[in-house]
Amino acid sequence: MRCQSRLARTLPEDQKPECRPYWEKDDPAMPLPFDLTDVVSELRALLLEVKP
């Protein structure tokens, strides 16, 4: 959020905060989605299947 704030945008380039990595929503290079609800649900289901 600090990298995208109004104040940060007014700073000179050499004084702006560096926020890396930064991805936009639906960016194919992003390693994980912003909302991990579906991922967590799938992992829980897998764990429940494995337990004897």
Automatic annotation (TrEMBL):
InterPro entries: FTO, FTO_C
Pfam families membership: FTO_CTD
An individual GO BP term: regulation of multicellular organism growth
Record domain Alpha-ketoglutarate-dependent dioxygenase FTO C-terminal: where: 1-44
Highest taxon in the source lineage: Eukaryota
Regions crossing the membrane: none
GO molecular function: broad specificity oxidative DNA demethylase activity; ferrous iron binding; mRNA N6-methyladenosine dioxygenase activity
Biased composition (Basic and acidic residues): 11-24
UniProtKB keywords: Dioxygenase, Oxidoreductase
Region annotated Disordered, chain positions: 1-24
Cited PANTHER family: ALPHA-KETOGLUTARATE-DEPENDENT DIOXYGENASE FTO (PTHR31291:SF2)
Record-given protein name: FTO alpha-ketoglutarate dependent dioxygenase
